[in-house]
Amino acid sequence: MEFYRDRKFIFMAFLFLLFLAGIVFVPAQSGMLLIVALFVFGSLCLLWKERHLKLGGLGFLVILAIINIGVNGMHFGIDFSGGTRIPVVLEQSVDTNTMNELVQAIKKRVSVLGLTEVKVRSIGNSQVNVEIPSGDEERISFIEDVLSHQGVYMAIVDGKVALTGEHIFSTSIRPTPAGQLSPDAAWGVSFAVDREGAEQFAAAAKDKTDYPVYMFLDRPMNADLFYTGDQLLDSMLNDSSKRESLNSLRDALELDNEDYPNATINVYVLDDLDLTNLSIGPRTNKTLAIISENAPEEYKTALANAGYVLEEMPEAEMAPEFTRTITGVLVANKIEGIGLLSSPRLSAGVTTGTPSYNYAISGGVSTSDPTEARKEAIEKQKSIESILKGGSLPVQISLGSRTTLPASLGEEFLHLSLIGIIAALVIISLFIGIRYMNIKATLPIVLISMAELVILLSILGSFTIDLAAMAGIIAAIGVGVDAQIVITDEILKRDKYLLQEKIEHAFSIIKTNVTVATLSMLPLLFSGLVEVIGFAISTILGSMLGYLLSRPAYAAIVEKIIGKEGGEEHGTS
Amino acid sequence: MELPNIFRGNYKLLAIPPLLLVLVALYFIPQIEMGVDFRGGTLISLTLDHAIDSNELQTQLESEGLGVEVRVFETAVGYKAEIESPQSEKLLRAEELKDEFESLLPEASNLEILAEMNSSYEAEYQEKRNEINAVANEMFELAGANTRAELIESITDLERTFSESYKKVYSDYQTAITGPIDKYVDYTSISVQTVSPMLSTHFIETAVNVAMWSAILSAVFVFLFFRVIVPSIAVILGAACDIIIALGAMGLFGIPLTLPAFAALLMLVGYSLDTDILLTMRMLKRRGDPRDKAHDAMKTGLTMSLTGIIAFATLFVLASVTHIPTYYEISAVALSGLVGDMFATWGLNAVMLLWYVERKGEQ
Predict the structure, then answer these.
(1) How far is B69 from chain A (nearest CA, A)?
(2) pTM for the whole thing?
(3) Other CB atoms within 10 Å distance of the CB of residue B286
(4) CB spacing of A420 vs B314 below 8 angstroms
(5) Could you give the domains of chain A?
(6) ipTM for this model
(7) Does B155 contact A171 at a Cβ distance shorter than 8 Å?
(8) Residue B252 belongs to what domain range?
(9) pLDDT digits (tens, 9 = 90+) for A372-421
(10) Do B1 and A434 touch (CB under 8 A)?
(11) Do B210 and B261 fall within a single domain?
(12) Where are the alpha helices (H) located in A113-228, listed in sequence order?
């Protein structure tokens, strides 16, 4: 049969190419893609009865798995690669959104310090794992510090520090009750400050009605900001010139007085710089040059040569947000990359020079739709609350016990574990061989077990293989052959049933078994018990794999080779 | 290879070995040791380049006032020592204080602001402040901090100092153990796993939930699937006995109940239901002599169990070579359970089913 002309087969091949492209071009999602591929090919194999399609499904998946390992490699937990794991335990369980926020926040904190090799992953709804491929004590305690560190809040009015986080009573930060909001405000946040803070603010804000209060979190104190001409143009308001925009940026980033000497962040447009004769330079050998990661290389090299420490950022993070006030002044409202998060204006009441202990930040919304407006108001209010609280994470966290493993030991463990996998495969193959004394029945079992193993390793390797996952993989070798054993026994049995009936009998047993095995492990998968989730994933995937792909494929083979044999025997006995 | 049909003759006697096993298991279950995950405390693993005497180290550490348990292994990659220390009273108290402090904090801080603006709140603030000071002072004492809450002016500062002290109690607890170890042992690497009381409570709560859901989901599925009372009960009973036998083995062989052991137990639920279901489906949905069908099912079931046993035995060997606790706990529990499953399924479950099928046949 010329199966390659078959439309169904062509469709499968087309899907295969689609998944292949996904795996090669979106490496970050390769594990998920393989799981989707498993279900897609699996469903097709259940749906279509043709033998070559069932085998094709398994074949395609195995090729995808091998390519994935080849192209994207496999990721191992620190138990196998060496390093340190710091579990971050949340004091309450959170929903998916909060968890994502939290993981992003932790990632951001750690990556700000150039520690990109640190892995942050959420597991379940109450724990986040931070893994560092290093056992260096100094580095680990540094990261522990960063994790437990609160952001430094700083409010700047007209180039002077008006308030810092240490003077705010953190527990006093709360939403302003609706009754106390001014009529034109949609949301508000009230907070109280101590005596020193009140005096500092009164002095800085005196006679500055309508000036913006630039609110920063972790403002870099020794850095310059570099935009490409296009980048600046993209973020400018339609009615403003480049010059006006640059001026408003300079206003926002000015800070130079005796408490904070030379802390102004200078803004430059790269296109205006003469690269051959750079007239600017860093203040110290630690001055950061904050620059878009998409900026032309020659600028990066020139700045690095001038003595700057380059800090490359995604364009979206550097992009300034401008607004025009009612009085027509252009204000830089937000530049996330350097911690400028919001710029409310000073109201007349707080600019008299008399210290006050209570403040409120309030604002309107941009939409008139009541539901949308309510949503926006809550979002804005939450974001201000979080800035004032030092950008603290959405939930209280505590650092769990850390585990450190030397890289050499990890390698040894990995090596031994791989030997274990092979040993299990060999012994089980021998056992099956002895049990059936029938090479035609044994060989397919062994081959399909190997195919299963490759797929399982590839999927789990796209995420992270830790000790529990490895134990699960070895277990899956034992469990994976169960389906084939049920089919083989059923077919070899000498009774009155037809081959097709026998296979259906076997399938219904396997289906029930897989359902039970999955159901009993499912609660563990969603438990958030980090240490053993890998085990749950590999056992569940292992049985799914058996059900969806290897089972139909094996039946297809065995039907052909030993099915006839069994039938003949039945006929003669 | 021909397996004799054990269901010929008086098959009811087959129920005796599994029932005996369950009885023995029930006796050993109370002796199960809780691992560090569920009990809380600290487990320190050291890799060593030479052998050390565990008794000697234990005596040395005890002389430093540490109530620890020391185990030393030889592995394929050198020597390894495990030192386990129970939960410290200090740490327990510190966590209680932390809860107390956090419950007092909002009101105290609110009163502080009010008092700052209006002196008539001063008295009320002082009262609350004294209350929170007492909690803070006890924490400072635990941490050995050289300060008193009365000397700290603002609540915000108090909160900061309090939180520092809590962290110090925590790290003191760890150094109290690692310090003497540094003194007596020359190790190549160290891993310190501290499970705080809060964390172990969390583990226990989650594990109980998971076990409950797993049991409910599997049991409901079995009932919905078979829709006949006696076989369903037989299947669930078979699985329950298997878990009991595995738990008994944990007590007998001193396999600690940790998260990996727990995961293995859950897997056993699925695994033992598998063989039970295989048997029940063959018995109920197929024509032929019940005893022959049971015997046929047993051949398939034993083959399945044996492949599982081979896989976990490999893992067990790997565990004894590497002394990776995760491998050991999973494989030891799974092996006991798989062996137990053979008895529970072919002794107990099969006997109940045969009795049910033959009685129904007579009617």
Answers:
(1) 19
(2) 0.74
(3) 16
(4) yes
(5) 3-77+406-572 (1.20.1640.10), 83-148+398-403 (3.30.70.3400), 153-389 (no CATH)
(6) 0.83
(7) yes
(8) 11-37+196-362
(9) 888 788 778 877 877 777 665 666 676 766 777 778 888 888 999 999 99
(10) yes
(11) yes
(12) 137-148, 195-205
